[in-house]
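// run 5 | inverse folding | seed 20
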């Protein structure tokens, strides 16, 4: 018996040692840093899969008349009925995130994904439960399993984010799908019990998964408990929020002692008044940042929290701005050893994300009907249009935005430029296909960054909001030969740079395709700061900016190989379609 007892002790010690070692496999908070199983600091560079499990109206361009998901869904049901609505949502969810999406994010440089979840994919609303019980829906868990599998294959961390909590956690209903006709999360103990149970269920399912980066337990609460501001920005105590987060953490720790708990303050994640002291050693503070200045002062409050409470901080959500702002924000974060997750991956017809979903003509008709009324689309027409929209969410149908990806990764580390695409001459170079790079290096535009400061005033930057997310103003082009876009609102002194591969050294004639309803414009060409043309006057074409003319700069000498050609506007006011390089004969 003594030998057996001794053996059991050894076996138990072995299990304890194994479990302690397994804890080190997980991403965890250590002092002021997030570290991996080897104790190495990990800087999370992530993207949020917004709009997939939780639809937000602005991502579908329905925000002005249908913001929360339940209203969007009701509008769809009114058009095509419940049965076909179910078919549409099945296709929408199936196509919204696939292995190809996750593979693409990894290849672009992201090492983590923030997964915004709607509770109703995991469990029904409380009004559909019986006898205060909790029913589970496998669909949400299976979708999460799939994303985790794809993340593991790419060695990416998956952070679970409860974006729409039972009942809705904020007065900004568009974010949390809050239905104001029903009890919110804060007005219902049943909703809170369901939320706590859901997190325990998730933690129990993923407790042994090292590529689960952690649990972002409540996204952007914005609720007034005792003060005046409806979004909780003036709350001093935040007692209900703190108590709920403590209870969720306890429930998680009953089954999972290892994974990070990410917490968020009130006022869209940023008001931490009353939240301290912290109640768990493996906690990370998340804050969200949009549109404000990218100065150290803009994040000083969270830097102070990190130091005072010896806790890591994480920019859990940001984005929706210009490439210049992205570069500034990411530089600021990484200079202060703060990981980040930008937002979101997919929106309809946008320039500020890493991808854009094509807005098919049928869906445009539906949007116009929802917005302006008029003749109702037929059920058959609407169903086909919505199914085409769902098809457009597949990665193979998206428009990838190389300028945004470049702005978030390469441009953060360098001001050097690179070609937007391979430009070989002789040939046509479209005006909008100027180099990838920062303002003052790939292009010069005088209004190039989008700020919204405390006054609420928006700074004008990209007036066209088409094709690219730089300061350069781009709009749709209707000229007979174009790539669909043109540069407009060109001001005096602005310029564009194009890296071109020249097949033959020699002289070239360069035709400028433009339109102008000003008295005259003027431009010249430079190559590596060397003047290679005289100033060319661009006469007024017509009072109608839709009339285009071509004017030629003759005898421009270019060397064989790579040339960086800068098109400088001595006098602006013109609209530029393309440049065509033709080798001069003789």
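// decoded
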């Amino acid at each position: 018996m003594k030998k057996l007892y001794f053996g059991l002790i050894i076996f138990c010690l072995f299990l304890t040692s194994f479990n302690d070692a397994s804890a080190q496999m997980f991403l965890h908070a250590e002092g002021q840093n997030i570290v991996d199983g080897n104790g190495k600091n990990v800087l999370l560079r992530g993207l949020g899969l917004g709009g997939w499990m939780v639809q937000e109206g602005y991502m579908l361009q329905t925000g002005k008349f249908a913001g929360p998901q339940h209203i969007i869904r009701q509008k769809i049901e009114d058009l095509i009925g419940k049965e076909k609505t179910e078919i549409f949502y099945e296709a929408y969810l199936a196509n919204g995130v696939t292995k190809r999406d996750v593979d693409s994010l990894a290849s672009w440089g992201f090492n983590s994904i923030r997964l915004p979840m709607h509770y109703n994919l995991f469990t029904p609303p409380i009004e559909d439960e019986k006898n205060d019980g909790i029913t589970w829906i496998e669909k949400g868990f299976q979708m999460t399993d799939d994303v985790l599998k794809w993340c593991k294959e790419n060695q990416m961390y998956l952070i679970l984010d409860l974006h729409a909590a039972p009942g809705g956690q904020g007065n900004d209903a568009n974010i949390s799908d809050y239905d104001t006709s029903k009890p919110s999360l804060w007005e219902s103990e049943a909703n809170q019990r369901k939320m706590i149970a859901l997190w325990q269920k998730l933690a129990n399912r993923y407790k042994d998964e090292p590529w689960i980066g952690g649990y972002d337990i409540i996204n952007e609460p914005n609720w007034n408990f005792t003060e005046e501001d409806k979004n909780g920005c003036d709350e001093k105590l935040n007692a209900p929020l703190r108590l709920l987060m403590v209870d969720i953490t306890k429930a998680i720790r009953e089954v999972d002692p290892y994974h990070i708990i990410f917490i968020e303050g009130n006022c869209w994640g940023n008001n931490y008044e009353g939240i301290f002291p912290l109640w768990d050693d493996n906690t990370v503070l998340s804050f969200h940042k949009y549109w404000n200045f990218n100065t150290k002062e803009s994040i000083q409050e969270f830097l102070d929290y990190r130091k005072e409470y010896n806790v890591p901080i994480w920019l859990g959500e940001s984005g929706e701005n210009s490439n210049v702002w992205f570069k500034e924000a990411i530089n600021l974060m990484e200079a202060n050893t703060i990981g980040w997750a930008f937002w979101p991956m997919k929106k309809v017809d946008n320039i500020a994300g890493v991808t854009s979903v094509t807005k098919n003509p049928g869906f445009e008709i539906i949007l116009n009907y929802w917005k302006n009324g008029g003749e109702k689309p037929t059920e058959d027409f609407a169903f086909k249009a919505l199914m085409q929209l769902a098809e457009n969410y597949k990665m193979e149908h998206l428009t990838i935005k190389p300028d945004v990806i470049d702005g978030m990764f390469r441009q953060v580390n360098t001001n050097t430029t690179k070609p937007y695409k391979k430009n070989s001459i002789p040939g046509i170079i479209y005006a909008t296909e100027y180099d990838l790079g920062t303002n003052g290096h790939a292009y010069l535009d005088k209004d190039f960054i989008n700020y919204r400061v405390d006054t609420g005033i928006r700074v004008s930057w990209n007036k066209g909001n088409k094709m690219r997310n730089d300061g350069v103003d781009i709009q749709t082009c209707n000229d007979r030969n174009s790539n669909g876009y043109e540069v407009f609102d060109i001001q005096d002194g602005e310029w564009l740079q194009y890296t071109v591969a020249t097949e033959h050294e020699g002289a070239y004639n360069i035709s400028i395709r433009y339109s102008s309803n000003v008295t005259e414009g003027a431009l010249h060409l430079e190559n590596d700061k060397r003047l290679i043309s005289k100033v060319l006057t661009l006469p007024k074409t017509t009072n109608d900016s839709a009339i285009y003319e071509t004017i030629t700069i003759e005898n421009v000498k270019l060397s064989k190989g790579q040339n960086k050609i800068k098109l400088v506007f001595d006098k602006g006011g013109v609209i530029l379609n393309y440049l065509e390089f033709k080798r001069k004969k003789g």
